[in-house]
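User: Hey, my collaborator sent me this sequence without any context and asked if I could get a structure. I don't really work with proteins. Can you help?
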Amino acid sequence: MAAIGHRLYEQVAGRVRDQITRRTYRPGDRLPSVRELSRAYKVSITTVLDAYRLLEDQGFIHPRPQSGHYVRSRPSAMPSEPDRTQPKFEPAEFRREVLLEQMMIDAYRDGVTSLAFATPNPGTRPVAKLNRITAQVIRDMPTEAYGYMESGGYPPLKEQIAQRLFEAGCAVSPNEIVITSGCQEALVLALQSACKPGGVVAVESPCYYGVLLATRLAGLKAVEIETRSREGMCVSRLEEALAQAYGTSRQIQAVMLSTNFGNPLGGQLSDVDKQRLVAICQRYEASIIEDDIYGDLGFDDARPSVAKAYDENDTVLLCSSFSKTLSPGMRIGWVISGKHRSSIERAKYAMNIGAASLPQLVIAEFLSNGGYDHYLRRSRKSNESSIRHISESICRHFPSESKITRPLGGFVLWVELPHAVNTIALYGKTVEKGVTFTPGILFSAHDQYRNFLRINASRWDHEVERAISIIGHCARAMMA
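Assistant: No problem. I've predicted the 3D structure and written it out in structure-token form, which is a compact way to encode the shape of the chain:
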């Protein structure tokens, strides 16, 4: 096949698509294997794989684990997204620690398929390269690897982070960065530095339970702000809440949110809204604690800006980590501390002196010479594909009235089930069958979202398909 006018894989996809539309291949038919099509069209296996991926994206075919590619039985029609949230403006404390502890126990039981925790697909992790770098670091820098690091973190790692943040429109000095033991610690340190105990923090709704837990540990109450599945926190509603509380005993001291691909909705604030957010918080004297842990995982490959990029008055404390991209087990995060640097470094030293030395050395080397951007591109593609397949699986197995988010990045899905399905009760039924997920009630300090759940959609295979079918079967049984 000569590639004239179109790339070769597009020509292959076009020929297969023509055969589908002419009904040479009918809905439900299995398509030729990758090797068979490669031989038939005299093209490489890579070209056929790219062609099949294009047809998947266009909704003509879908893969089945260990079985091949099939023509869709009907056009891909995704259900609507969950309704807008309508949280109360009433501050509240998070009190669901016992459920979180039980979920952790359940997830690590033998034979359990856990879709509960937002962990990246281990199959895409660059384990071999990390192992080589780790061995090299231990060989070349044994004293540094096994000794204490300065409390603020390894300077070359901070330099690499500062360089990468430039792509997000954020010009910071490495000296402003404090390395932490994961993003959760960064959030807690930021809260403790920006807020006084007994104060009020504005958060998204639904809100990642780790944020709610951090507010509780810092002695704070959370007021929940309407958050949209595509556009993120509603800045107008936030402004209303800030204005109502300003000058009172319930004045909001900080706003804690993800501006890019937040958990669990996967939405993204526009650049205009990010600028409005910073201006509004400056007006009402509220710090912004920005969680950018998913910022590198947008599906369009362009690194979005952060709210910190529009911060000219040191209003924003930016937190992130490598837990969702490179390795959750290394526990390396950071916070851009600004005027809070001294208090954050003191608190960090009091907690654990400093983050672990060896992971800092390894990640610094990986960022410098390990092909991190190539790895990110592969991860984004894998996440987007997994989300698409799991969304389709939910359509097949869940009650027909269910609604699913369509995230712009990250790797979690937020699902609204019919009101008859209480997801705490549903969890009890599925865990007996060896499947876990996160009940929606964990994403609100007001015990909202009782008929919602969150699913980790970072990987898709036969085991995950089976887990989705079990959740769906149990949900349908609860409606009978």
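In plain terms: The domain at 97-123+374-479 is CATH 3.90.1150.10 (Aspartate Aminotransferase, domain 1). You can pass these tokens on to your collaborator as they are.
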